[in-house]
């Protein structure tokens, strides 16, 4: 956006260039010409020409912008019905996002509370088993025994292990699955949650706590094709063998992405 201040600055730059040219273009200087004086005069003339062009370009752009601003109210009036519909649609869409965020927040609270309540129940059961004389025995694994402190705390009841769970890891596991399915593995959210908490421990739980959680429906995500091996300019030279090997590795990875995405959208899951 060109402002009047920009035009004033351009005018001041032109005035300075004209002043410098006038100082070099004195009659007595032409009586005693020299290569240096000629070069200085040519440079000053070039600065004047550039300043004039700069001022002219800014003035033209400013006039176009002012005309656009003047025409804007009429365009808004002509599109009044369309703008009203757009505002209504945007408000409804914003309300849906707000409601979905509130529901997701409430669901996340329920998830964390349920995980912490489960842990409390595991510890309570361990205490009750210990009080009943069914605590753990060193060197012997019983069908029923109280808390085990090596690794994740757990109790065993009639051969079934019931370990505690890291509540934050469960939340990260859920959000990562949703981000992976709906945003794609290249999304910043999915990438940042990839190794958060103890997600991979959840998949190896002996009690299959999350085995019945349904899969999240995946979206078809359009990935733009990646062009490789299109070099402009001179051939690249590497400062070391390690730099060359890293460049080859990067090129190979880029080619794999291109090969997977060149023929259109692919399913992200």
Structure description:
The structure is a single chain. Helix content is 63%, strand content 6%. By secondary structure, the chain is mainly α. The protein has 4 domains: 4-77; 79-161, no CATH class; 165-218, no CATH class; 223-269, no CATH class. The strands form 2 sheets. The chain has a 3-stranded antiparallel β-sheet, covered by helices on one side. A hairpin with a 2-residue loop joins strand 2 (154-157) and strand 3. Helix 1 runs antiparallel to helix 3 (35-78) and helix 4 packs antiparallel against helix 5 (167-182). It starts with a helix and ends with a strand.
How are the SSEs placed, and which strands pair?
Elements: H1 4-24, H2 27-31, H3 35-78, H4 80-131, E1 145-148, E2 154-157, E3 160-163, H5 167-182, H6 188-192, H7 199-203, E4 220-221, H8 241-261, E5 266-267
Antiparallel strand pairs: 1-2, 2-3, 4-5
**Which regions are unreliable across 5 or more consecutive residues at pLDDT < 50?**
226-235, 262-269
Strand and helix order: HHHHEEEHHHEHE
Please give the largest β-sheet: 3 strands, antiparallel
Return Rg in Å.
36 Å
Briefly summarize what is shown.
The chain is mostly helical. It is built from 8 helices and 5 strands.
Question: What labels describe this entry?
Answer:
mainly alpha, single chain, disordered C terminus, two-stranded antiparallel sheet, 4 domains, 269 residues
